[in-house]
Amino acid sequence: MSTRPTHNYLIVAAVILFIGILALFLTLQPGGGPVGSGPISYDEAQQLLRLKNEGIAYLENERYAESDPLLERLTEELPGDVIGFQNLTICRLLQLTPEKLVDHQSGKQLADQAQATVAQLIKIAPESSASYVLSARIQLALGNESKAEEALQQALEKSPESAAIWFELSQLQKQNVKPEQQALANASLKRAWELQPDNLFLAIDYLQVAAVEKSEQTKAVFEQVKQLAAPLAESVKDHTRLDLNEVIKASLQAITDGKWNLVTRNARVLRNVLIAEDLVKSDRRRVEQNPLEFVIPDFPPAFYAAVEWPAQEKPLSVKFAEARAIEFNEEVSADIRDLKIADFDLDGQPDLILLTAERVQVFQQEKDGRWSVMTSAAAEGDFREIHAVDLDGDVQQLAPSPAGEKKEEPQTIAAISPVRDADLDLVLAGKAGIRILENQVDDKQGTRKLVHRPQADSLDALSDVLTVNFSDLDHDGDLDLVASTGKGVSLWSNRGNLSFQDISANSQLPPADLAATSIVRVDWDRDVDLDLILCSRTTRQAGYLENLRHGRFRWRTFSKVESENGSTANQFEECVLTDYDRNGSWDLVGVQRQALMLAGTRLLGTGEVQVDSVRQIQATKLADIQGTLLQAGDLNNDGVLDVLASGGNGLQVLLGTAEHRTEQTAYVTDEAITSANPIQLFRVADLNQDGSLDVITVEAEKVMFLQNQGNDNHWIDVSLRAEQVKGEVKSASGRVNHYGVGSLVELRSGAIYQPQIVAGQSTHFGLGKQTVAEAIRVLWTNGIPVNIINAKTDQRIYEKQTLMGSCPYLYIWDGEQFTFYTDLLWAAPIGLQFGKGIVAPSRDWEFLKIDGDRLQEKEGYYELRITEELWEAGYFDLVELTAVDHPAEVEIFSNEKVGPPDLAAFKIHAARETQTPVGAVNHRGRDVLPEIREVDDVYAKTFDEKYRQGLAEVHTLELDLNTAAVKQAKTPRIKLFLTGWLYPTDTGINLALDENPALPSPRPPSLAVPDKNGGWKTIQPFMGFPGGKTKTIVVDLADQFLTDDYRVRIETNMEFYWDQIFFTVDESPAEFMTHLCPLETADLQHRGFSTPIIHPGNGPERYDYQNLSQQIQWPPMQGGFTRYGDVKPLVEKADNRLVILGAGDEMRLRFRVPADPPRPGWKRDFILHNVGWDKDANLHTILGQAVEPLPFREMRSYPYPTEEYPEGPVLQSDREQYHTRRQDSAAFWKHLSRP
Fold first, then answer.
1. In terms of C-beta density within 10 A (0-12 exposed, 13-18 middle, 19 or more buried), how is residue 40 classed?
2. What is the pLDDT of residues 1032-1050, one digit of tens each?
3. pLDDT class of 408 with cuts at 50, 70, 90
4. Are 89 and 141 in contact (CB under 8 A)?
5. Is the dihedral of CA 930, 931, 933, 935 positive or negative?
6. What pLDDT, on a 0 to 100 scale, did the predictor assign at position 4?
7. Closest to 352 in 3D by CA, of 360, 364, 336
């Protein structure tokens, strides 16, 4: 929207007002608007703006029933204006779902309303192709294919160069099986491809047609696919073992040789491999236009010029104390190049980090207010930037305060200790390249030093560096590096040991001459991964690197929406993030030719963002200084981000405020910060820790402090720490960089909504008059959200990382209520990576024992609940319950082991006379026998040092089985029963460990026995292990011992905890009877999320089924989940018919109780047999952000590049009738910002 005219430009404002009123008069039907030919009153404008704003907000949040009457009222108020009718048409189109249309009466009413609305739209905007596209979609929803095709042909008459409309026409024509229609569909698809040759989705789609038709263009399309898919080639080879370049090379040769069957097969293989890749999905969205792309977001400028606006209330002014020079005890080196403020020595107080022409100096403040050098190092080169960032994840226990000195600890909300932290390393950048200085501490002396870490084989090759930034590019839990030089942009993966590897070859980077001078990390398109916005003050160009995951990026430009003077966001020379209209979509305040511009955006869906307005917000000329032109922060603590911009010998203060026109944030000029000398650079930080953001400048080789004198508004600082807390033990999780840099923090309190991207050790929010921060949501860089409710103001809070588990949960009816039992499908992960190019195997079946004392009958049925409560998709093909009756003195166990089919083969193991080991010690000789003697929920932990979540030191458990029964047996046949659980790494941690030479990869348990020489010999390199929550595995040791010393040693570096370990000797098979419990009903429904029950010791988390949260927990996954309702046909047999569960879903199962009760003296236990898979949405899981491609039992691997999904009529019907539910993207992304 255009900004409101200011009093400084009365003549301009008057002209605009006259022209605006005339324009508005001409655009409205005579007498149809609320004002006729006169001005619009403020009250009338407020009403129209409310109808428009709320109507669009509800529309974008998928609350169509609430949007419809508001937009209909807007059409009544403005019957000649396109905005009301086009947006109402979209709203009514989106209500034409099969579920609503099946109801004859209400469906007919919806259809009539939609057709009437679009007909009026076409009358008002007959030259707009959007009118006809929307008409076509309405006709198609109503089953009128011929009318839909006719409307699309009309749309093409208006926009013949639109690849999206040509593609939409091809998809419609393809539905008609007549040969002539198929030919038309192919021709339309070809035209779409010709119009958008850089679209990989169109290329692989058209490749199928070209190959079948033996077109002479086939070779060119293969070549195009090779070029466009180049960033994917390496990761596809790692994930699927398929070499894209070799397939294309063979295809080109096959064309030459006339082997068209091979050409067609390879074209199909390429599509199967690429279709689910994020790059292809992104390109697909370019031609599969979301209906929200047609939303008209605002009135024209003439509307605003015609409104009689009252005087605008100015926000609370910011008052700064007179600038004073910071006093140093030591001389500061000349020629200050850069300045950072951070807690370098982890004492809770900010330090000053200065880069000069000769040195790097770190200063700490003394009690007298002066600043003294803590440490320093020679710069040794021409550097212009300094960055303070934790590169090595060296989380350490901090020394306590000196005796007698009482140190005030910050108040905390979450259970995380502020005495553990990671120190900040320093990175210099400039003409001399990049120089890394490690922050090392001498624990004995309590001093710090900067140690140069050479990068001989990587970063040292760079020179003439314009800027750098740090972001978790590959989402493996550490901070990687982005460097811009005069020769282009390069991406460097942090190996975890202060060394870097160039990964630029995996991406489509911007043109080499871009010369980016600023880089902003942000999830720009709200699809969880971090993108990078690049701007250049040299070439006046901007755009963003779209994150395609797995360390791959693609250069994109912003939507080419122009301002009144023709400027676009693609010309921004620098920018800062904001959400000026509070719509849950990032906006940009940018610099363009020394003017400040505002680019507004809308989020259309996951991965879909559209710039919809660009306008100038200040006409004041900006200064041209050596460093950053813009800084953002809430200077007056009113809950709206303000902007500080350089301007001559001072700084402009632009205050954000709720503007009268739209109740959205605008910017008004506050009193400028003036200086007698040119300001070389400036920073915004709370230097004196009083809750108000101060300004620190460098001018005339002096560091100046401008103290913000504050006001009565409240504030809160949020500090993130990525720690795993287990019992009383805290350790680095390894899932996210320690300070959560790059994470999204959103705050909602009253009318205040403010999102920010974490950039350092703490993130500051103003709260105005709010006395609590009602809701704070942290979305960590690995996509895991955590909510903080009702945090008190005027304090600093620390929030630990919420850890994500894995696999669906099982609850059982215990006679009184449903209680948590265990987790499922642990042996069946799909897309999980153990390391680069190493995909975890998947076994699709499991047999789990359910204790008969816990599962009780309920009205003639056994009732189970299977829930999906985590960020994943669960696929169930079969759920089968079998009752096992056996003598009461016998315990039975299935083999609940993770491992290959031969190792984990199902068998019922009986145990009559259990033996407890004589001794149990770990590798340090610590006795753990008391913890493993009984099933008592007291778990033995056999390691002391832990490196990452799921990864510990190599540790052993030595069990002495030399009981009397063993010694009396001639050749004892021993079975070992181990009950325990595993806290696993995840795929992101696995990949980070794989590239870090300083740390080992996880090593599953192996089993050794004594040899004849007094040593140990490994007899089972892979013993198998219990997966996830507490389970029991069986290890058969018959004929495994090499001597008469019956000890075993289990060795691993994974995070296992053991509840009970026992064994049997020479047990004979027990008698038992099995009864299949027929499945009576299976119903899928939304349930929500059970409350975790945190184990106080070393046990696993459990969940309280009765204590439920309906609050949305996880980012949306793409694709079709199973619709709610009856799903019994899908889980009765293992036949690839699936129930697909998403976060918050529950499958309720009722099994009939067998007719025959257990014999006298017998008892009943159960075996639950599941067939299925689980896909974790971790950003490193292969294809982890989408439901598709669906798994099937015959697949040899996942993904399955050369195999075909069994698309029979039944499975095809299941996709159309069952797997039709989509997760609500708006519900998550706009959870705090929505109306």
1. buried
2. 999 999 999 999 999 999 9
3. very low
4. no
5. positive
6. 32
7. 364
Amino acid 407: pLDDT: 38
Environment class of residue 213 by beta-carbon count within 10 Å: exposed (0-12), middle (13-18) or buried (19+)?
middle
pLDDT band with cut points at 50, 70 and 90 for residue 871? very high
The structure's pTM equals 0.86
In whole angstroms, give the CA distance from residue 679 to residue 700: 8
Secondary element (H or E) of residue 532: strand 531-536
Q: What digits encode the pLDDT tens for the residues 1046-1083?
A: 999 999 999 999 999 999 999 988 899 999 999 999 99
Q: Supply the angle between the helices 200-212 and 278-287 in degrees, to the nearest 10.
A: 90
Instruction: Count the Cβ atoms, other than its own, within 10 Å of residue 1189.
Output: 18
DSSP string covering 338-393, please?
EEEEE-SSSSSS-EEEEEESSEEEEEEE-TTS-EEEEEEEE--S---EEEEE--S-
Which helix (H) or strand (E) is 763 found in, with range?
strand 763-768
Q: Is 177 left (phi over 0), alpha (psi -120 to 50) or beta?
A: alpha
Neighbours of 536 (CB within 10 A): 23
Contacts of range 555-559, beta carbons closer than 8 Å, 24 or more positions apart: 555/508, 555/509, 555/510, 555/511, 558/599, 558/611, 559/610, 559/611, 559/612
In angstroms, the Cα distances linking 1145 to 583, 652, 804, 1033, 1178 are 28, 51, 17, 29, 19
Pairing of strands 833-835, 1139-1141: unpaired
Helix (H, G, I), strand (E, B) or coil at 313: coil
Instruction: Give the C-alpha separation, 1227 to 1235, whole Å.
Output: 11
* Cβ burial, residue 443 (10 Å; 0-12/13-18/19+): exposed
Cα distance between residue 863 and residue 649, in whole Å: 75
Percent of the chain with pLDDT over 90: 68
Using CA atoms, how far residue 953 sits from 416, 924, 950, 1037, in Å, is 23, 12, 10, 26
Provide the H-helix boundaries in 762-846. none
> 50 — phi, psi (to 5°)?
-65, -45
- Angle at which helix 129-141 crosses helix 163-174, to 10 degrees, equals 20
pLDDT tens profile 126-135: 999 999 999 9
Which region among 402-416, 1022-1036, 1084-1098 has the lowest average model confidence (pLDDT)? 402-416
For the ranges 36-45, 319-328, 1005-1014, which has the lowest average pLDDT?
36-45
- Token pair belonging to 774: 């009602």
DSSP per-residue codes, 877-897: EEEEEEEEEEETT-EEE---E
